[in-house]
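QA checklist item 7 of 12: single-chain prediction sanity check.
[x] sequence parsed
[x] length recorded as 195
[x] structure emitted
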Amino acid sequence: AGDPGVADGAGVARGAGGAGGAGGAGLAEFGLAVEPGESVVIQDRFHAGYAAGLLALREGRVLERAVRALRHQPDVLLINATGRDHPRRAGLALHLGAACDLPSIGVTDRPLVADGPLPGPAQGDAAELRLDGELVGYRLRTQTGTRPVVVHAGWRVDAGTARDLVLALARGSRTPVPLREARRLARTRRAGLNG
């Protein structure tokens, strides 16, 4: 794989009360890390409670704010969310990419509704995930001896390209560097506010 260009990871760290309640809003840190070196952390409240399949309503607005706060727009967004592996074929990764008009890829620990086998044991092994016969992502082993990640096709990115970029951006770790850094930024900020 060649140089994937500039990638951006979006991570969320939920604070106390992050699940929200009836009519309540939990506090969250939304981190963005762009390669190389630029990052943004925005603190906001969830304006909607959790509802399965509706993460875009809960987190999409503030993640869009964070992306737009960057001085330099990335070539692709990496989001800890699904893309086309969704009951409506439109998870948060797809919504955020469309809202920001940037190609996007979802990376999660498990599929949401798609089905497929596990990949082989070696780094780079991948297995297709399908939903009603449509290829929507891959289980991808980014490192030998680790659990696979699930790579979701998002906005203007097909499943094969998403798989290749995530593998290139993993660089010796299970999760892609920009996504890992975004999570770290959000968690560090949350810990500083709670400490």
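[x] summary fact logged: The mean pLDDT is 79.
[ ] second reviewer sign-off
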